[in-house]
Amino acid sequence: MKKRFYNIAIVGLGNIGSYLFNFLNKNKINISNKNINNFKIIYVSAKNKNKKRKINIKKNQWVKNFKTIIKDKKVDIIVELIGGSEGAAKSLVFGALKSKKHVVTANKALISKYGDQLSKIAEKNKVNLEFEAAVCGGVPIIRSIKEGLIANKINRIYGIFNGTSNYVLSSMDQNKTSFNTTINKAIKLGYAESNPSSDINGEDVASKVKILSCLSFNSFINKNIHVEGIKDIDEEDISNANKLGYKIKLMGFSEILDNKIFQRVHPTLVDKSSYIAGVNGVLNAVIVDGKPVGKNIIQGEGAGPSATTSALVSDISSIMRGNIKFPFAISNTRRKKYSSGKITDLFFSSYIRLNVKDRYGVLADITKIFSNNKVSIKRVLQSPQKNKKNSSIVIITHRSKDNYIQKTLKTLVKKSYIIKRPKLLRIEND
Amino acid sequence: MKKRFYNIAIVGLGNIGSYLFNFLNKNKINISNKNINNFKIIYVSAKNKNKKRKINIKKNQWVKNFKTIIKDKKVDIIVELIGGSEGAAKSLVFGALKSKKHVVTANKALISKYGDQLSKIAEKNKVNLEFEAAVCGGVPIIRSIKEGLIANKINRIYGIFNGTSNYVLSSMDQNKTSFNTTINKAIKLGYAESNPSSDINGEDVASKVKILSCLSFNSFINKNIHVEGIKDIDEEDISNANKLGYKIKLMGFSEILDNKIFQRVHPTLVDKSSYIAGVNGVLNAVIVDGKPVGKNIIQGEGAGPSATTSALVSDISSIMRGNIKFPFAISNTRRKKYSSGKITDLFFSSYIRLNVKDRYGVLADITKIFSNNKVSIKRVLQSPQKNKKNSSIVIITHRSKDNYIQKTLKTLVKKSYIIKRPKLLRIEND
Fold first, then answer.
1. Which residue of A41, A153, A368, B208 has the lowest C-beta tally within 10 Å?
2. Which one of A143, A307, A329 has the shortest CB-CB distance to B294?
3. Looking at beta carbons, which residues of chain B come within 8 Å of A306?
4. Of B55, B61, B70, B76, whose CA–CA distance to B8 is shortest?
């Protein structure tokens, strides 16, 4: 077969860019053999040339301004590792696709925001836009949806999509430590960035959910998503969950119900003996429910330079083989637009935690409010708090419309015996 | 883009062939859209035309003799669903590749036996030979190794590769039933074939291990494999395993150690709290350990018409996109030949079950034999058997060379106080 040469430029040389640079150089022959064609890193670029890096850049490889790379006719593939949905990353990826370069990116913020526009340019210019590394690092979920599971009509995709928050929750559970202690330890160990807010507040998972929705349902990006993070989870919730037979996980969900798309991210109680309860530490897990295949699980390391490089190289390889051109698995002319469903219309069994004053008749009043709102109670766990005249009441409801649960909480919050804002955690019964 | 038309012939119309036929017809537009090109089932063939099938074959689709299909210039892709490593299936697949037809097959027996020869013909004739459906049905493991995990140097691949045996073992555990009762129930429920021998004796798993080795290590088929089935596992083993904190699973393993390939299939004790212990029923799970990705798990339904069709359609789609031509991920000219390692050179913590006469000094003699053979004992579980003058002794050893364990058993078996052949089950410590 006739061999082609692919010239690659890497823009962004942090931990991931540097790892990828070394990996491609070290494994050049093997990667070329598997993909029939050859490649070469001809340019690299980054903000700061003088930053210390463990890579050996040749003099003629360094390019000061990435705009030069976009215009260079020799370049076939641009790997964007700058990050962020705006600024340099946005200008690089839009510019590259418009100049008919293939693009590989790990940028979930950019793809979940501008993916529709970008994929239209890629399709028009017959170049690839690949982003396996943007969703769950080393877990080859995008390639699996686009190829291994191509036959399937997916109706639900969900799982643990963020390693940092999963590390924090499993560590709080295993070591009985507070949220703040645990997050500081995670930062120290390198499992969380120094500013971990997008991992903790659910935004990172939300970006991944939006991308996975498009791939799973052949739809356009839908920006409506219910997002809750984990910063309000405390030791008492973890301990209550254990007593009741659950673990708490930050999960993302996307599903089609009645022709509407429901996207949500929130801390979720899962049965202790379930598969997902055992996915601990920085691991990610994606569960795909489709026809005819049934339920498929893919699990692996969700982040870090090595796992991300595995994904980036699979994208580069796919381009080198001339494989699939559609960034979202199907032509933009055939992608669908679903209307958005609201979480308030879904049904959950829920965990509700109330802090109340220890007064006569309180539990009777609470249960009456639940009943008035058509929410039926399955279990109650009441524990008096030491040295205080307060009680903690945990209620597990039967499956009820989320709307009714929220109405119940709105009524409760006005009551004088309620000390703190009630806490709601949804239970996954799958 | 210019569209191509792929003409497909399906040979073999059992449950799977019939399901595939209907699925392709029903999802024609969607599959064509995803793969840019179109397709049509132009021929079908099977042994018995008059068998009752739930499919609507047009008059000009039926071909009496599949040899006609091989010779027909209109045919692009032949799907072989006859089964078996010899006879019609062999002659069809060899013939098809020689006539420059792409082949899709679910035939693990054929591929694990003749895969090297077949892949040489396919490569020479520049056609695809695809067999995702031959290994773990709906689990897209082959496509994942060839594409999503393409960057990785895999050093170990293992897991649960047979749904029938996994159903039997998990059912024996959950329902406390005997092997025979359980296998009969499995046949009745359709989870086992009426002659389940290749599922039970480990042969089916062995075929899959051989195929996965080639893909993982870029090697030729290695026929040396240690194979043990599950027919000797009884209720007492299951109960002992539970007491000691384990579950019993039939597992396949392939790994490269000291530049040698070690392939083995045997019932394995796994920690109760491990991931693999929770994979129950007819599910399959494949664990890939590679660099740089770390450990990846893929789990799904391992058999049945729907899961298998998911795999067959992914193969057909890959051909329609003109994707990868190498059946074993890399050109035959670059595949490696490893020498074979022996299980006796590996180290395991082991479970040994002895049935002994209740005599003075027996345990002392047994422990001395272990010690003489350099096998150190970790735990002993001795239980007298009701109404008998016998005891059951279960010994868990520390990690020892398998060879030493086997020598220990050979010495023991000669002793007059040993009633039954000692039983050995290896423990997975991963």
1. A368
2. A307
3. 291-294
4. B76
- Is residue A208 flagged as an active site residue? yes
Q: Is A294 on the interface with B (CB under 8 A)?
A: yes
Its ipTM equals: 0.94
Task: Return the bridge partners of B77, or none.
Answer: B8, B102
Q: Cα separation of A42 and A58, whole Å? A: 9
- The torsion angles phi and psi of B357, rounded to 5 degrees, stand at -75, 140
pLDDT band at B303 (very low <50, low <70, confident <90, very high): confident
CA distance A238 to chain B (A): 20
- The helix or strand, by DSSP H or E, that contains position A44, with its residue range, turns out to be strand A38-45
Chain B window 172-231: which residues touch A at a Cβ cutoff of 8 Å?
none
Task: Check if A307 contacts B (Cβ < 8 Å).
Answer: yes
| Contact check, Cβ <8 Å, B310/A151 | yes
* Nearest CA-CA distance, residue A152 and chain B, Å: 7
Contacts of B325 in chain A (CB under 8 A): 1, 36
The alpha-carbon gap from A16 to the nearest alpha carbon of chain B, in Å, equals 12
- N residues, chain A: 430
Q: Can you list the positions of beta strands (E) in B347-399?
A: 347-357, 377-384, 390-397
Architecture of domain B344-428: 2-Layer Sandwich (3.30)
3-class state of residue B360 by DSSP: coil
Number of CB atoms found within 10 A of residue A184's CB: 14
Map tokens 């839908």 to a residue.
A222
Give the model confidence (pLDDT) of A55-100 as tens digits.
Answer: 999 999 999 999 999 999 999 999 999 999 999 999 999 999 999 9
**Up-side HSE of residue B259: CA atoms within 13 Å toward CB?**
2
CATH code 3.30.360.10 region(s) in chain B = 141-301+335-343
CA distances from A53 to A22, A194, A368, B388 (A): 11, 20, 64, 73
A-B C-beta contacts closer than 8 Å: 171
Q: Catalytic positions of B, please?
A: 208
**Cβ within 8 Å of residue A180, ≥6 positions away:** none
Q: What is the CATH T-level fold of the domain A144-302+328-343, as seen in this structure?
A: Dihydrodipicolinate Reductase; domain 2 (3.30.360)
Identify the residue among A310, A312, A317, A319 best suited for mutation to test binding to B, counting B beta carbons within 10 A and taking the highest.
A310
Say how far apart CA A114 and CA A327 lie, in whole Å: 12
- Whether B294 sits inside 8 A of A306 (CB atoms) is yes
CA distance linking residue B309 with residue A67, whole number of Å: 47
Task: State how far the Cα of B218 lies from the Cα of A400, in Å rounded to an integer.
Answer: 53
User: Which B positions 263-282 lie with beta carbon below 8 A of chain A?
Assistant: 273, 275, 278
Note the pTM of the prediction, 2 decimals. 0.96
End-to-end CA distance of chain B: 49
Non-local (6+) Cβ contacts of A136 within 8 A are: A161, A208, A284, A286, A300, A302
* Residue B147 touches chain A, beta carbons under 8 Å: yes
Kindly report the backbone phi and psi dihedral angles of residue A291, in degrees, each rounded to the nearest multiple of 5, phi listed first. Answer: -115, 135
Phi first, then psi, for residue B392 (nearest 5°) are -105, 125
CA distance B5 to B39: 5
Superfamily covering domain B5-134: NAD(P)-binding Rossmann-like Domain (3.40.50.720)
CA-based radius of gyration for chain A:
24
Span A263-298, pLDDT tens digits:
999 999 999 999 999 999 999 999 999 999 999 999
CATH for A345-428 is 3.30.70.260
**B9 half-sphere exposure, CB direction, 13 A CA radius:** 31
Of residues A294, A318, A325, nearest to B147 (C-beta): A318
Can you identify the CATH homologous superfamily of domain B141-301+335-343? Dihydrodipicolinate Reductase; domain 2 (3.30.360.10)
